[in-house]
Amino acid sequence: MFTALLATSAHLGSHAQPAAEPLAVPAHNSPSLRTAPPMPPFAEADLERARTLLRGIVADDPELASAAYLPRPAFALIKGVANPDTIYDRLMREFHADVHALHADVPADARFERLEFSRRRSWVVVREEANRLPYWSARRNQLIYSTEVNGRRVERAIEVRTLITWDDAWYVTHLREFH
User: Fold this and answer.
1) How far apart are CA 158 and CA 142, in angstroms?
2) Which of 12, 80, 103, 153 could form a disulfide bond with 60, CB atoms 3.0-4.6 angstroms apart?
3) Distance (Å, rounded) from C-alpha 113 to C-alpha 148?
């Protein structure tokens, strides 16, 4: 098993950087995989992260929304670059800007309905996107919410540009178009 020593928190979803402890690469992201494992469906934890993402957008709170973002320790293991923190920080700044931009378009009464995969799903092999670990990627997904319009609930969608897997969990890496 491939293990790395990285700064992690007790909960992988946190973006805090406490003391270093080992983070094992899950079997679904093993660099020795020669064929793709089955693509995981959305689990309840993925849907809860999507709900939190929507709450963060509605509240104009990128820190809250970032619970849906791929955690830094996982990103650092996945990326095959000299300084993944520099890239992560840039992507996180873009994510925060995207949350602020979406806040202007999403009504305050937005209620999470569901998260839908697009048909643009693929297994990303080692070295395909400057990565040293493989993962599932789903592009142009839809976070469906409802809002009241003229006295009735109607559904609207937010495109979630890129979701990728860490183990069998799905995380945002790009909320809107990558710049």
Assistant:
1) 6
2) 103
3) 13
Cβ neighbors of 82 (< 8 A, separation 6 or more) are none
Residues 6+ apart with CB under 8 A from 68: 49, 50, 52, 53, 56, 171, 172
Pick from 96, 78, 61: nearest CA to 169: 78
3-state secondary structure of 30: coil
The percent helix, strand, coil of the chain (3-state, each to 5) is 30, 35, 35
Residue 114 CA, chain-centre distance (Å), reads 16
Tokens of residue 49, six digits: 């992260």
